[in-house]
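Backbones bend. Shown next:

***
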Amino acid sequence: MIFSMKRAVAGLLLALVLVFPLAAAGSGEQTAETPSAAAESAVPSESPSDSTPETADAIVRTSYPLTVKDGLNNEVTIQSEPESVASLTLFSDEVLMDLISTRRLAAITSLASDPVYSNVADRAEEVPRQIDLNVELLIEMYPDMVFVANWSDQSKVEQLEQAGLTVYRIQTPVTMNGIREEILKLGRILNAPEEARRIVDEMNRTLEDVSLALENLEPEEKLRTMDYNTWGSASGGDTTWNIILDHAGLINIAASYGSDDYGQVPVSKELLIAEQPDLLFLPGWVWGEPEAAEGFKDEVQSDPSLQDVPAVENRRLYMVPEHLKSTYSQYIADSVRFVAERAYPGLF
């Protein structure tokens, strides 16, 4: 390989971090352990063919105080509608930028402004601060609401809570329905249920468009594929990438192999030769080497030992932009479309 192991490991760790990434209103305090009935009607089943939004009941605006359970099952009470919100995950950055006015966003993550990772980079400058989990700065800012991930540094999160900040730990979604549900929950918390429904409906429409394009694809016509990274691994069955491939009408070869704690499956050249993938998805970005992704594609394409692999023989190697490969917000629907259009260009 033309890439150093040190850089490969650093890239893997960063990619893994990125991939990890209610009740009706009343006059008293609300609880919101699950989406409301109206919200649930916006959540189709996991099947790509069942992703058409259903007609919802009347959407109910939020009343406060509102008590919710966060991604770690902690009860969080929100006394009034949050007017100042800090987002400390890329997932919440991407959702909140579409959900509420940027005037309500006190801060988003530093990754939000980086077009390599972020689907909202072109609008990130509308938010006054791009920060990481900086306890001192957040206490100084003292926003009404802070969103972190369920995997965020718990000692820092506890410091924020001890300082009196209202913190909600977002459960990292690992299914399409999980993504929909988290969006609807955020809409409920921030009194933006209609906007949340709109985001979910747009996501569903994109998925339905793909599903309709693939509706005449017979099971035996589905292509076999996997992603192939510079550090020699692929994403297995318990990953958002597997969800993307499934909704794009593809069979993830790596899903049939055991994966590590991060969902990664070791991939050797021998495995590629044995499995004969119809197409391969390669990284569109390599940590520390901006030009290396194209070089890796050329290396795979010209490798003498891989010339009889259909993906290589037919030059079906596709680089996937990192902001599409690693997203687990509503923009995952765009990832599905991107992948499906490259796999089955004649159907679009």
